[in-house]
Design goal:
The protein is mainly α and 363 residues long. Helices cover 76% and strands 2% of the residues. InterPro entries: Peroxin-3.
Length: 363
């Protein structure tokens, strides 16, 4: 029996060796496959965790953006009101001066100018801070993800402070230049309009459209972004204040911001914000163009709103007070419409994405 078995094994030795090799190969191949599957699963899990961490950081950064905008609106309002002081004119009118008509004409120009400047500058503030804080946010994410013992931080606190201080251009020289341009456009559009002339809401909208067309199109070589950030390299270097390593990082951040401000996406988003801002302004003004008979009507027809007219002298105080709604630190419909705009959110996400991915992965 044993002899026959041995002879059988000898005759089929090669087959058994081959079968053993195949079985062993399959076994080790299975082990290798299991190892690779585990590695893939671990890599996918780590990528998912990293993506979730980055998404959480991004959302937290957007809340910071919103809070920063609201905290800066009082400063913006004060800067506008200081340069375009309508309160001194209204106080002067109460004294019944002999040049009453002249003061009313000045009040007309200043009231429209400061409200329109408030719309422009609030939109600019929202979008500029979205860019700056998402650039910093992206770099902070990389700093927190990197090995701090081998990698120098890309956005240390001193750099952040220097970089964010560039917002003072929008609250200073940029704002003053914007006021000059808007005031000239207001004068050209409303300068010859009598205080006694009546305007409907539709006609008021047309006046604002003419003013916007002049402000946004009269100097095509000067982009609206100029009012938000100093344009030349010398000014950018001056804002960085020196030649230390931190100052070099600050200049780099400022240059990256300038690139963003010059991009088509930025111009599209800013234009969307401005359109929404002026639309909200007209919505606010529409409440003053309802006749008493329509106050009890919960669904007044749009034609009725545009049919009612008010003397320009009565519109001026209404326009003059809009800055309190536009630049309100308490979340108003005006500010929320801009902060929560879908295009603003998408633009912010793209900026954060661009600066939160390691450079070697972008190549």
């Amino acid at each position: 029996m044993f002899s026959s078995t041995w002879n059988f094994l000898k005759r089929h030795k090669r087959k058994f060796i081959f079968a053993g090799a195949v079985v062993g190969g399959v076994y080790f191949l299975g082990k290798y496959a299991q190892k690779k599957i585990r590695e893939i699963q671990e890599r996918e899990a780590n990528e998912y965790i990293a993506q979730a961490r980055r998404q959480f950081h991004f959302e937290s950064n957007q809340r910071t953006c919103n809070m920063t905008v609201l905290s800066m609106l009082p400063s913006l309002k004060e800067a506008i009101a200081t340069q375009l002081n309508s309160e001194s004119l209204t106080a002067l009118l109460k004294t019944k001066p002999t040049n009453k008509l002249e003061i009313w004409e000045d009040l007309k120009i200043i009231s429209f100018t400061r409200t329109i400047v408030a719309v422009y500058s609030t939109c600019m503030l929202v979008v500029l801070l979205r860019i700056q804080l998402n650039i910093i946010g992206g770099y902070l994410y990389l700093d927190n993800s990197a090995n701090k013992s081998t990698t120098a931080p890309m956005a240390p606190p001193d750099v952040q402070q220097q970089y964010l201080s560039s917002i003072q251009h929008l609250l200073g020289d940029g704002l003053i230049e914007l006021m000059t341009v808007v005031k000239r456009a207001v004068q050209n559009s409303l300068g010859d309009v009598s205080l006694k002339q009546t305007l409907s809401l539709l006609e008021l909208e047309q006046q604002i459209s003419w003013i916007r067309a002049e402000v946004e199109g009269s100097e095509p070589e000067r982009q609206l972004s100029w009012y938000m950030l100093a344009s030349d390299q010398e000014a950018l270097a001056d804002q960085a204040c020196g030649l230390t390593e931190n100052d070099v990082l600050t200049i780099r951040l400022l240059n990256e911001t300038r690139d963003m401000l010059d991009s088509p996406d930025f111009k599209k988003v800013l234009n969307t914000c401005m359109n929404r801002g002026f639309s909200r302004l007209l919505d606010n003004l529409a409440t003053f163009f309802r006749s008493p008979s329509l106050e009890s009507d919960h669904s007044p027809a749009p034609d009725n709103l545009t049919a009612m007219s008010l003397p320009l002298a009565k519109i001026i105080p209404i326009i003059n007070g809009q800055i309190n709604t536009i630049c309100s630190e308490t979340p108003s419909h005006f500010v929320q419409d801009i902060l929560l705009n879908d295009q603003v959110k998408e633009f912010a996400a793209n900026v954060y994405e661009a600066f939160s991915v390691p450079q070697e992965l972008q190549k």
